[in-house]
Amino acid sequence: MVETAVLAVGVGLVWISTHRDVERRGEALLLATAAGVLFGVSDVAIKYLTHAHGPIFGLLSPWTLTALISFAISFYASARSLQIGNASEVIAITSIAANLSAILGGILVFGEPIGSSATGIIVRLLAFGLVIAGAALVPAPLRVTSNRSSQQTVTS
Q1: I need a surface site. Which of 85, 86, 106, 153 has the fewest CB within 10 A?
Q2: Phi/psi at 21 (nearest 5 deg)?
């Protein structure tokens, strides 16, 4: 099952980040990626449960357990990544990973079409790539620093 494989990858990323001696920034970003992937898995599982036939079939589905486990682990991974990392980096990585995994889940699990023709598929993938490239090119905010060596003292 696709959801089980993605869940295993997310849990593996959380385990690796907590059991290896990596620098804090790398650990935070790895946890943020794992949290985002698992948030996406829980989104896909919840979407599946909303389309289940009847309330009993929804609750007795393996998707219920997938949604609960992936959300619980992603919540703690996200909280830890925010504790040890830069909030803006962590939030951005978590959001990107969640969106990408939810999009891939829609395509792989539900068979949602990317387009109806080769041209449509190419144009949509190109547009998606351009959005990602544009987001990567947005400059980081500038911080004001005081440079005492460049300040001149005016004496009268």
Answers
A1: 153
A2: -90, 85
Secondary element (H or E) of residue 49? helix 24-50
130 vs 132: CA distance, rounded Å: 5
pLDDT tens digits along 34-72: 999 999 999 998 888 887 776 666 677 788 888 899 999
- Characterise 111 by phi-psi region: left (phi > 0), alpha (psi -120 to 50), beta (else): left
CA–CA distance from 107 to each of 16, 74, 152 (Å)?
A: 28, 22, 61
> DSSP per residue over 87-129, as a string?
HHHHHHHHHHHHHHHHHHHHHHTT---S-SSHHHHHHHHHHHH
Q: Residue 137, class by beta-carbon neighbours within 10 Å (0-12 exposed, 13-18 middle, 19+ buried)?
A: exposed
Can you tell me the distance from the alpha carbon of 98 to that of 77, in angstroms, rounded to the nearest whole number?
13
Global pTM value: 0.65
